[in-house]
Amino acid sequence: MKALAALTIVARAVTVLLLSTFMITVLVRLLPGDPVDTLMPFATDEGRNQLREELGLNLNVVEYYFRWLGEFVRGDFGQWYASTGDGGGVPISQMLALALPRSLLLMLYTMVFSLAFALPLGIFLGYRADSRVDRVISNATFALSSIPSFALGLSLVFVFGLKLNLLPVLGYVSFAESPSEHFKSMILPVVSLSIGLIAGFSRLLRVDTIATLREDFVTMASSKGLSDAWILWRHVLRPSSTTLMTSAALQMGGLIGGAVVIEIIFALNGFGMLLNTAIATRQYLAIQSLVALIAVAFIVFNLIVNVLYAIVDPRVRTASV
Amino acid sequence: MRSSTRECAPRVSEKRRAPLGVYLATAWLGLCLAAALFGDFLPLPAWNDYDYDFQSSPAFTEGHLLGTDPDGADILSGLVHGARVSLGISFTAVLAGGVIGGLLGVLAAYRRGWVDGVITTYFNVSLSIPTIVLTLVMVAVLATPAVDGSSSGIPRELVLIISLTLVIVPVLGLLARGSALSWAGRDFVMVAESIGMKKRAILWTHIVPNVLPTMMSIGFLAAGIVIVIEGGLAILGAGATPGASWGSMLAKNQSNFTIGPYPTLVPAAVIALTVMALNYFADYFRTKIDDRESRL
Question: Which is it for the CA torsion A83, A86, A91, A97, positive or negative?
Fold first, then answer.
């Protein structure tokens, strides 16, 4: 019974994946204009036909999709064509090798930073529900979470970059180059993305904490004379964090590519920026492969959540799915 | 543990919180709506009228109350005109997306079976791609002129409305489906079924009227989200005509941010305030609905 349920979940995920990549294929084929004109404006007719064949533009959408899919699952993401005229391209995987780590690190730091603040905050607000502290902080986080990340990012650049001159405002420094400069270049983008997440996460955790605190096992633990802090961290946090985890996993999927605006504002040249350039310059294969990677990430994170549910909350583990 | 014995603590706090925030939110949204509707009657220069004698002038310059941007465009006039474009795009997209998504979602919950499967799969497929990325591709498909200069001929703002509607449909649709399903399991629906009421009649008299308030509350949230996406698109170079909406005002002046951040920060603040007001509205609406539902 359990294996069947797991199989259904995986089958559903694969279906959604196939359909979403196909949808992108259709959208890419609908892009106006001849991509050959953009990719090789000065090529001979022979060269143009060759490129057309290479891109699969002579095929219909379905054939085209399966040819792309076959290459994609083998790890061949296609070429990024240079518009220099000779039709030479750079493998997209090579460009990814540069861009993807930046976006993944941005995502990772954002998640660690957000959770590091949201976990204690959410638990504390749930514990002190309806106190003056709770009202003030809840209101403040609610207001903060309404500020779009780009507006926050620009304001942070204004204060810390331009007025105080404390932090760099543009560009990315890799960890290998200089660890301290690396973290300095990431602080502002990470904070811009995190404020909204901290507010959202702590809100979710606060509500679930309030619910868990009414459970019998909490009364039991406190009647045993355990301290409040011990009960909160050891007994309340885990069962209260399932909603939070779902939300966090979905946000992680969304941050790859979804952080494109922040990547542009801070000139991080990450994954989102690569995708934006691909769309603007009609890189057919790049658009398809990059969006497909985002969808894969999103769906994989979703699957992980379903598994983690069972591990984190003993009540789900024993319940029949 | 003392807090474990408290009764329904959070509801009280949310009730108490509502008024001030809601009054401020109403005032701000009213101001924005008034600007959008009656902005033409204000004695302001046109939003795209470049006054070359007053470039990058500070606020309270004579004739330019909020100053001008580096092109000499009046910032106040840009904000007033931007209210019309930004709110127009956002409200239209959310209304259209809410109607389409709402109907699809309720239909899925009502018919179940393969209809539900198809509709839910469509929603999940759309949601597996981040909204900003999907909108970006949509805008590219619908709008960007080809290399030979031929464009699709659809006005820029309409392209944004169509793309954003398509993106917001699955978000609101999934919510409508969930809400409809939860109402379908309530006692009064079972009573209606047991006295032989037709399924279609139950749908329109019992389920849709109860799903609507939830949809409206989420609609305010969605309107805020759409304004943010529109701003993001503008920063990515795929937004409204430069300077026409709040987002495209911000994007247009962003290249001069390090020299003069003021013309960028003002539209950013206006976007933030509007989204905040819409969120307060949504939140207030939700607590109202919760109160009503707990009495049902």
Answer: negative
The CATH H-level (homologous superfamily) assignment of domain A100-272 is MetI-like (1.10.3720.10)
- What does CATH list as the number for B69-290? 1.10.3720.10
In angstroms, the CA A162 to CA A154 distance is 10
Read off the tokens for B87. 């709110």
Please, which residues 235-274 of chain B have a Cβ atom closer than 8 Å to chain A?
235-237, 250, 254, 257-258, 261, 264-265, 268-269, 271-272
**A248 pLDDT higher than 90:** no
Please answer whether residues A143 and A222 qualify as being in contact, where contact means their C-beta atoms are separated by less than 8 angstroms. Answer: no
Q: What is the CA radius of gyration of chain A?
A: 24
Using CB atoms, which residue from A16, A147, A158 is nearest to B124? Answer: A16
- The residue in chain A having the minimum alpha-carbon distance to the alpha carbon of residue B117 is A12
Q: How high is the ipTM of this complex?
A: 0.82
**Mutate: best of A137, A167, A261, A287, partner B, most B CBs <10 A:** A261
With both helix axes pointing from N to C terminus, report the angle between A149-156 and B246-254 in degrees, rounded to the nearest 10.
30
Residue corresponding to tokens 């398809």: A288
User: Is A222's CB within 8 Å of B128's CB?
Assistant: no
Q: What CA–CA distance (Å, rounded) separates A187 from B240?
A: 31
Find the CB nearest A280 among B17, B148, B237. Answer: B237
Per-domain boundaries in chain B = 69-290
Q: pLDDT tens-digit profile of B150-183?
A: 455 677 788 889 889 998 999 899 889 988 888 8
Taking an 8 Å cut-off on Cβ atoms, the answer to whether B264 and A154 are in contact is yes
Residue B256 has pLDDT above 80, yes or no: no
Nearest CA in chain B to A300: B128
